[in-house]
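User: Could you go from structure to sequence for me? I need the amino acid at each position, not a summary. Structure tokens:
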């Protein structure tokens, strides 16, 4: 695992900038660094050595024909298989045993797109083609590794992180308010957007090629998750349950074993849920000694799963480590989050994820996780809950028309509506959110509203045009939600959270569920192998029972949640008060100060738990303060 940075310009006036950019991402690769430059082309690399710890794995690295030079972040898990295939074509004098060297020779022999199709891994890389005077920037299929770029009149700039790119004087730091609107809804800034207008993200499963002569770029998918998902679900496998179970077992075992290949110590995140327990069980089965497992708990029993993880670790015979998080711990972490997450990011489980990664790094350099099982196998309870809510709304006569009309009513008339029609005590904020849901034009718009932190953007002082969502044709609503999560929630939230938290402490996180073969198999399964009788992950749960006693697993799902609402009234209150001060909000002219103050007061009085909304604002405010804005 590493960090990469670089740029191509028309002159040598920025020759000392690259080291400044690399210094900013030192945490991503503290073991060594390298730079390569020629004729205005600057490629840089920070290395966290995992495979081939020798100098033979040093980057940037040049192909044997000296046409290609690469700076690469990530792992190609099947590199040994590709190496054998390359050896069958020609006799290659290998310098070492790194996946980077194999990548270069694969690209040299087959070309970029065919090589990308063969790579099974998580990666982001920049590849300079001397012959074509072309830069290729590519990202893995699901977006496990980040890659940003910026095009300007003088050339192109790229890096693993925005903070690194800011060190380049050509970067313009104008905020993108459309990106901020998206952030307020989803608690992250989705690709291809970034917080700055001048910087974009490479989309998962795609690459861009930049032509030096014309200073233009083109973008292309080498693996389109949307198209593959739709194709697979329209033509599901005709398979018996026992056959599907055996196939999933084989695929997961193969995936885990590939991700156990390492020249450094490895371990496993273990929450006690099905997904992490399955990954851990397969790891332990394929290890000659007790693997190291890691979990985190909370002093609030409503959020604590550490005891369940401990019981499963004991059953499997792992070498288990656990730590507990308090409000004080959270306070100590929050001021670091802006640096850790690079641009505004507000999934509050970022706090325990960072603390878990920090504890894990004391013992190992690589850790496997159970992430992505919910997206692939329909594990979220919200899938069924959302269907039920949508059906209920559609049974209300003229519900959509009434909701759109009610949204524009003044507050005093909305209060009258609450008194007339609601038996529950709800606030105007809650009513506005319900009205947004009820006015959805189609199910996709409805699900996006369900998934949104702020269900409308009225909190912004500068109003942005509302986002429109088209419904997918010929796809049922369960599949639509799983597809939306795979394309958006998974890469922009879950994978961002894991990558930034792990890399902040120089830990490599690996995710077996995101093996290409596992994912495509999951999409090919009939839906009742994923969700049955209203419960998700049917087939993976059956497989987990094969490894672990059923009574240790069957319990309500907690998720990686934190007692944020409680912390904002206690340990984090003063910090939040500072960021939400009236003077600051008015000076910034980004948010409607009255709305922010209103929900902050409602939260402090215990009227409504607004922690989700408040955390979104607070993380953006903390980021802006760090920038002096």
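Assistant: Here is the amino acid at each position, in order:
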């Amino acid at each position: 695992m590493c960090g990469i940075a670089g740029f191509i310009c028309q002159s040598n006036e920025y020759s000392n900038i690259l080291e400044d950019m690399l210094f900013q991402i030192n945490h991503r690769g503290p073991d060594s660094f390298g730079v390569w430059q020629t004729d205005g082309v600057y490629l840089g690399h920070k290395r966290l050595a995992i495979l081939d710890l020798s100098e033979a794995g040093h980057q940037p690295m040049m192909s044997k024909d000296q046409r290609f030079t690469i700076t690469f972040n990530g792992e190609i898990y099947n590199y040994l298989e590709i190496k054998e295939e390359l050896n069958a074509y020609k006799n290659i004098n290998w310098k070492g045993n790194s996946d980077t060297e194999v990548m270069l020779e694969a690209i040299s022999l087959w070309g970029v797109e065919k090589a990308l199709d063969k790579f099974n891994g998580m990666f982001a890389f920049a590849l300079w083609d001397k012959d074509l005077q072309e830069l290729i920037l590519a990202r893995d299929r699901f977006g496990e590794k980040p890659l940003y770029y910026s095009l300007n009149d003088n050339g192109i700039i790229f890096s693993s992180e925005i903070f690194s790119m800011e060190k380049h004087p050509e970067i313009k730091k104008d905020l993108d308010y459309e990106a901020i609107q998206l952030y307020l809804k989803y608690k992250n800034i989705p690709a291809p957007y970034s917080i700055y207008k001048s910087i974009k993200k490479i989309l998962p499963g795609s690459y861009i090629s930049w032509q030096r002569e014309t200073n233009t770029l083109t973008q292309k998918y080498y693996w389109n998750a949307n198209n593959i998902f739709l194709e697979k679900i329209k033509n599901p496998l005709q398979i018996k349950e026992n056959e599907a179970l055996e196939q999933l077992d084989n695929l997961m075992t193969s995936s885990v074993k590939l991700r156990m290949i390492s020249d450094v110590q490895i371990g496993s995140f273990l929450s006690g849920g099905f997904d992490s327990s399955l990954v851990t069980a397969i790891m332990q089965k394929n290890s000659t000694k007790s693997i190291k497992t890691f979990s985190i708990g909370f002093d609030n029993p409503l959020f604590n799963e550490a005891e369940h993880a401990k019981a499963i670790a004991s059953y499997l015979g792992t070498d288990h480590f656990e730590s507990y998080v308090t409000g004080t711990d959270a306070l100590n972490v929050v001021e670091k989050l802006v640096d850790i997450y690079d641009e505004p990011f507000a999934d509050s489980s970022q706090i325990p994820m960072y603390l878990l990664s920090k504890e894990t790094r004391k013992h190992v350099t690589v850790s496997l996780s159970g992430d992505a099982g919910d997206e692939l196998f329909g594990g979220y309870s919200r899938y069924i809950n959302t269907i039920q809510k949508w059906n209920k709304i559609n049974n209300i006569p003229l519900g959509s028309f009434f909701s759109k009309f009610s949204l524009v009513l003044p507050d005093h008339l909305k209060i009258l509506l609450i008194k007339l029609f609601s038996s529950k005590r709800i606030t105007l904020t809650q009513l506005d959110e319900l009205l947004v849901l009820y006015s959805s034009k189609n199910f996709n718009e409805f699900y996006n509203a369900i998934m949104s932190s702020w269900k409308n953007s009225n909190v912004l002082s500068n109003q942005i045009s509302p986002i429109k969502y088209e419904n997918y044709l010929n796809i049922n609503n369960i599949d639509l939600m799983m597809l939306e999560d795979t394309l958006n929630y998974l890469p922009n939230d879950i994978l961002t959270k894991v990558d930034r938290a792990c890399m902040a402490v120089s830990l490599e996180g690996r995710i077996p569920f995101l093996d290409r073969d596992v994912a495509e198999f999951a999409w090919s399964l009939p839906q009742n192998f994923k969700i049955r009788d209203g419960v998700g992950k049917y087939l993976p749960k059956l497989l987990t029972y094969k490894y672990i006693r059923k009574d240790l697993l069957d319990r309500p799902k907690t998720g990686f949640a934190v007692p944020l609402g409680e912390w904002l009234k206690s340990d984090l209150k003063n910090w939040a008060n500072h960021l939400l001060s009236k003077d600051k909000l008015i000076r910034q002219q980004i948010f409607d100060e009255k709305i922010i103050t209103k929900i902050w007061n409602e939260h402090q009085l215990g009227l409504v738990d607004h922690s989700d909304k408040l955390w979104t604002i607070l993380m953006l405010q903390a980021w802006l303060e760090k920038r002096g804005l």
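One structural detail worth keeping in mind: The CA atoms of residues 310 and 320 lie 7 Å apart.
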